[in-house]
Each structure stands twice: as C-alpha cells, then as structure tokens.
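> call design_seq(struct)
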C-alpha cells in the first residue's frame, strides 16, 4: 500500500539513488544532497519534505525548504519546493505528494528550477513567474553611479550599520558558499548576497539579495570592475527586477531555460529574493 510520510534524516540513504536521477546544472555531491535532510538555519521549520513509500521502499521524494522571515515589518512563511522526483512506475501518484501543503494559501511557495513537466503542474495550482529574465553585467561595464559611495567586503566590521534582518541574513548565509559586500555612504547602505557560479567554464557572481534595489541599481555600475577584480570573476548575473529602469552600459540579457515560479498573496514579486533556497543548500 502506498503511503506519503514526512521525511526524516534517516531517509537519506534510501532517497539518494532517486536524487541522482534528477537533471542538474552542476554535479552535486552526496554530502551536499544530504543538506536537504537537516535544518540549515535557525528560522527553518519542518517538515523538510515528503517521501512516497511502497511496501517499505521509498519511490518518491520532494524536498521542502521552509523558513520564517521578517519582510516589510511582517513575518512570512516561505516554502521552497525542490528536487521533486518519483520512480517512473509510480508517476501517477506524484501529484498526491503535494496534497499536504499545496492547498494551504497562508504561506508563499517558490520553485526556482522547475522542469518543464513540473512548471505545467505548478501553474495549474496558481503559480506565476517570479522574474522575467536574468541580466549579465560584464566586467567591462561602467557607469558613474552615485557619488561618495564606497564598497566594503568586510561585513562583520560593519555589523552596526546593518539592520537586524540584514545581520541575520549574513549570519545565516556566510557559513554556506557565498559572497557578501556593502555599498555605503554614512548610514545609507545596500547589502548584497551573492554566489559564485560557472557559465561556459568562466566564473561569475550571481546576485541573490540586495537590501535596497534602488540604491543597488544606481550604484552597481560604479563598482562592477572593482568587484570583478577583487573576486576574480568575469561579471555579475542579476535578476531583471533588481535593476529597475537603470541603464547600464554593456549589459547582456541571459535567456533562462526555466523560469522561477511562486505563489503568494502577502508577498509580491518585487518583495522576493532567492535567499534561503536550493541555490544555497545545494550550492547551485
């Protein structure tokens, strides 16, 4: 008899063979996959996912990365759906794995890397595209940017400058593979969280969070060269909505093979970022 149960850390060895069948943009080690089966942050809540079981054998899995975050003065529950996989023999039961959470409209749901088949299913449940496009700001791009602003990569030395929420973000993410910097002028600042990625065997920096989108858009062109030299990268990859109407010379539109999806009623796309997600847990 088929059963759907919440996942436990003890399930990893039984699920691992299913995980290795999932198409991935990068090679993911066994120990990195294991991160899905334990809490990575203080604000992360259970369940960590569900498994589909047939006579004691795990034949399906979906991972959930759920956190409580304070955004815009309110606490929101944000759930990321990741690594959904079912043995072909039981594909007809795949949608039933969503039943424990898909009809709950009190939280925001996200999926950053949906396969085409998953995209179609989620849209049936009211998911929409989270962001239209990615843009590449190559190292040769240059804008004057805002005067008197400086950049620092020393986040701990500027703890007093950050809000409580931004310091928590740094505390949560710096232990995982990530890069951090701040544009600052007096008490005005924009805190940025990013990850190093590889495109056609070249290193880039994918921006996942900016604390002030307007300030970021007005300032990033001024510091692109310095960031690229300091981190030894070829450019920055940013979500289109992080740039607003700002025009940056040399920017390149990057086609996305799959569009990130979300469903939420309290949070709008402009309030969203890609922190606390599979990008960090699985090191995409």
């Amino acid at each position: 008899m088929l059963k759907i149960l919440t996942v436990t850390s003890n399930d990893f060895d039984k699920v691992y063979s299913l995980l290795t069948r999932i198409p991935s943009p990068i090679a993911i080690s066994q120990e990195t996959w294991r991160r899905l089966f334990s809490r990575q942050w203080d604000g992360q809540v259970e369940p960590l996912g569900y498994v589909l079981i047939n006579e004691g054998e795990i034949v399906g899995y979906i991972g959930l990365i759920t956190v409580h975050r304070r955004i815009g003065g309110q606490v929101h529950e944000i759930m990321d759906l990741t690594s959904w996989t079912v043995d072909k023999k039981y594909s007809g039961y795949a949608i039933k794995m969503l039943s424990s959470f898909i009809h709950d409209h009190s939280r925001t749901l996200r999926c950053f890397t949906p396969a085409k088949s998953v995209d179609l299913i989620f849209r049936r449940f009211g998911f929409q595209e989270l962001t239209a496009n990615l843009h590449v700001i190559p190292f040769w791009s240059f804008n004057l940017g805002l005067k008197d602003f400086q950049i620092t990569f020393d986040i701990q030395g500027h703890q007093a400058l950050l809000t409580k929420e931004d310091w928590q973000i740094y505390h949560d993410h710096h232990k995982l593979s990530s890069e951090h910097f701040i544009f600052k002028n007096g008490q005005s600042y924009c805190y940025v969280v990013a990850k190093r990625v590889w495109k056609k065997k070249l290193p880039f920096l994918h921006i996942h969070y900016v604390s002030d989108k307007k300030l970021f858009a007005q300032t990033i062109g001024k510091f692109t060269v310095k960031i690229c030299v300091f981190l030894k990268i070829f450019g920055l990859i940013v979500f289109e909505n992080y740039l607003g109407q700002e025009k940056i010379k040399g920017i390149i539109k990057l086609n996305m093979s799959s569009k990130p999806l979300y469903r939420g009623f309290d949070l709008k796309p402009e309030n969203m970022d890609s922190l606390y997600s599979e990008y960090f847990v699985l090191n995409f």
